[in-house]
Amino acid sequence: MSEEEKARIDALRKQLDAEHQWPSMYMFKFVLPNDDTKIKQLHEIFGESAEFRSRLSKKGNYTSFTIRSVMLNADQIFDLYSKASRIEGIISL
Q1: Per CATH, which fold does 3-92 belong to?
Q2: Average pLDDT over residues 38-67
Q3: pTM assigned to the model
Q4: I need a labelling partner for 9 at 20 to 30 A (CA). Which of 47, 58, 79, 81 fits?
């Protein structure tokens, strides 16, 4: 990880810590190609305790997800975004 990326993450961590009291409910948003394997991967990353809401795109090519889950700290958020980023074709919002 470059120094620039570390500085950006540190700034985001400070912002999250200022806006949340941990543990706190956090909302993630993703868009994925409409592929059952990729959708299953996303569910596995967040586990059964997360609340998933999904919406299929107009043409049915993509599915958008809003995921709500209790996070213990900002690092847990970064960890989940990092794991999700490994899914091919995912867009993090």
Answers
A1: Alpha-Beta Plaits (3.30.70)
A2: 96
A3: 0.89
A4: 47
